[in-house]
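hi support,

uploading two proteins for the ticket. first:
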Amino acid sequence: MIVEKTYISNLLLIKPDVFRDLRGYFYESFGLQKYEKEGIDAVFVQDNVSRSVKGTLRGLHYQIGTSAQGKLCGVLLGRVLDIAVDIRFGSPTYGKYFSVELNDESHNQLWIPPGFAHGFSVLSETAIFSYKCTAPYDKANERAIIYNDATLNIDWKNDAPLVSQKDLLAKNFVQIDHDFIYKID
């Protein structure tokens, strides 16, 4: 397993060892000791899986308070553009985003700690997206930023996104509260 730091602190790209042969492939999608050794000492309490069609755009979602979630994201089938936006007020990268294609060929994962808004855009005909969470879903503490926010200016690689009604009602980036304060590591 190779773990790469991104230009945004605490956001990590994980490249698992994938063993392939004539039968297919095998990889370890999570191993507590290996991930702890790499600095991901999160306790995961919920796993989520979504299936989406091409053009679907989900996000930008986050939870606040005791419901703040860290997410270990990967793709089981297809290809997505995964996005994490730094919403830690005072961070040198506050309001910046990191994007990476996650797919069923590389099996790479993105570790997104609390303090980030998250979303993805489906690039393939179908995608099955999987993510482990460090806190259970809590509707009362759920927040969202509108996907096409002018300040963030995210290139979703999607000209005609399929977006839920709930996500279309999300706030602009400049309207969000400072729920996360950046702390120097």
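and the second one:
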Amino acid sequence: MILISHRGNTNGKFESYENEPAYIDNAISQGFDVEIDIWMIDGILFLGHDKPQYGINYSWLKERKTKLWVHCKNIAALEMLDEKLEIHYFWHQNDMATLTSQGTIWAYPGKQPIKNSIAIMPEIYGDNITQCLGICSDYIERYK
């Protein structure tokens, strides 16, 4: 099962650290994949959930590409990653499910079971994760 840290969180929600590059690297060093939020503003990449916060460059993404699930937060970020075709990314709002650039089903909380999907925050609704390919959670440590 793929275990994905939500924005770098591994054992609880810590909004002040979410999407911070060192926080993401810490989750990766613990063996987790990480879902991150990315923006592109005036040609510059930023990490951040509700707004662009931490400037990064494309090489930062590329160096971690095997461990990242990149949630595009604006159309410019989506277009840039779609053009490059080497980073695993997706776009969603409140969809029940979306497909990532690599064809994985990314399912909104409470929509399980969906075979071969990524269950997002299954602890919120007590989702049945027996058919899932992976889990994305702020509490991903619990699923080890």
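thanks. also noticed: The longest strand covers residues 33-41.
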